[in-house]
Amino acid sequence: MKPDHKQPLMPREAELRAPEVRVAELLAPSGSLSCMKAAISGGADAVYFGGTAFNARKSAANFTKEDIEEGIRLCRLHGVRTHLTVNTSIKEKEFPQLIDFLEETVPLGVDALIVQDPGVMLYLREHFPDVEIHASTQMAVSSLDGAKLMESMGISRVVLARELTLSEIEKIRRGTKLSLEVFVHGALCYGVSGRCLMSSFHGGRSGNRGACAQPCRLWYECQSMEEGLNARGKDSQRSAGERTAEGYFLNLKDQAAYPHLKQLLDLGVDSFKIEGRMKSEAYVYAVSRFYRSLITEYEKTGNILPPSKDQLDELKQLFNRGSFTDGYFLHKDHMIEPLTPKNQGLRIGRVKSVQGSRIQIESGYPMHAGDELEIDPSQKTGAYPAAVRLSASMLRSDRLAVFNFKDPHFHIAENDSVRRVVDPVLQNELSRKSAEPVPVPIRISGVLREGMPSQWKAVVRDHVMQIEGPAPERAEKTSLSKETIQAQMSRMGNSPFVLEGIYLEMDDNLFLPVSSLNQIRRQLTEGMEEILTSRPKISAAGGCPKKFADADPGRVSSDSLSTFEGCGAMQIVFEN
Hints:
Layout: E1 25-29, H1 33-42, E2 46-50, H2 65-78, E3 81-86, H3 95-105, E4 112-115, H4 118-127, E5 132-135, H5 144-152, E6 157-159, H6 166-175, E7 179-186, H7 198-203, E8 220-223, E9 234-239, E10 242-247, E11 254-256, H8 261-267, E12 271-274, H9 281-301, H10 309-318, E13 324-325, E14 346-355, E15 358-363, E16 372-376, E17 379-380, E18 386-389, E19 395-397, E20 400-404, E21 410-411, E22 417-422, H11 424-435, E23 440-448, E24 454-460, E25 463-469, E26 473-474, H12 482-489, E27 497-506, E28 510-511, H13 514-533, H14 558-566
Parallel strand pairs: 1-2, 1-12, 2-3, 3-4, 4-5, 5-6, 6-7, 7-12, 11-13, 23-27
Antiparallel strand pairs: 7-11, 8-10, 9-10, 14-15, 14-22, 15-20, 16-18, 16-22, 17-21, 19-20, 23-24, 24-25, 26-28
């Protein structure tokens, strides 16, 4: 938003305080500071991110203490909430390190902690009572009883298990006052979140400890498979009478719940979460922007129209594993993509002709040098589609490409389908937009009376800053106009603000030096920036014990065991 010196003066001061009312929160992933900025640019109301330890995405860039501090300041400036993930199972030997981590990061001013381990929840309630705690989806809260248990523990929000149907979400919503958070876009796990041990057993990397090796994205061979289950996999004969099937049979498609967004909003879901702390800035920005537009439409009209073809094409181009799924919301069996776990991009055209090794592709979309294409041969003998990266010399026009392709594993024929899996032009455009600074709208009012100190007020969202300025004098020559004041107040320079509106009450024929107006603007903007970025006072209550030196290194935290025992658990199963 650029300063507009011709912007009409505000008719009344009441318009200065009209903060937007959000019906629900849009929560976006931030695997890095640049992704956090992308989420803000895309319109997210909140972001979630992990520190250097105790979070379920060890492979993400993640945040150092300095990154967390900078990120919180940036988010507070824009009115964006910050959720720090502490969502792994904690062993007793790790509690001293965890305590150090919490003592270091919580006072920085995070708005909420996303937690998996019940012992950590109890510890936070006792030693950081002012901190908002969210029960992670890793806790697999999938029933009203589970939600009520979290409520009894002082938890303020539950990130519901992804395996719930719409009717099950509705039942929980009707039965609890807890804030409810639901995943609406991104990768899905084959196993139940927080309950999957496959990666741990398969390679010693626990998904519940932030180190999932994603065995569900691997290629598997099934023997004696029932006829009909292998409709899209690869069949082969090993010996007489033995039939096998090969494919990515545990590979789930990515979720895109936009068709159900209105229903979820009507139900009263409080927060919509986008998965993707391993994704790029372009992805975070575009997906956030997409869901922001739908939620804003609902806020304005109470309805959500179907997204445009261009919007859906952009989502598919960025990332999808064989189209999208709405997940478990309707409990349909349409979630597996057995051909590839990679991005399948956007279907853009077909093979127009084949003359020996010379391939001609016709596209319904503009193509560019650098596009990475995949051709799905009708006679497939390899595990992957035929791949080609377009160069400028291959393009006869933006809709026609010609190139030579020799690979004995593939037989490419006319009308074979062509997909674009990487669009560098789109990626660059979205990356550029995601990095553009987002100005903070500020409204200013002033009252100017002859011989009396001028009164000034600045408002950002629901924050108010008031100061006194120099007293105007009676003009001897040129009098001060409202347009002149507005023009000076619009010159925000290097501040993070942009003038959204101005309201002035002033006597006629007054004079105030331009230098005074500039000083007033600086006082207002600098003071408001300090108000917006100030930290809430959060400190540990009663000290933080670190008496864990003699603990069994392999044991889960004793607080966690006490929690389960209090719930009436008869047996506890441990994971290494």
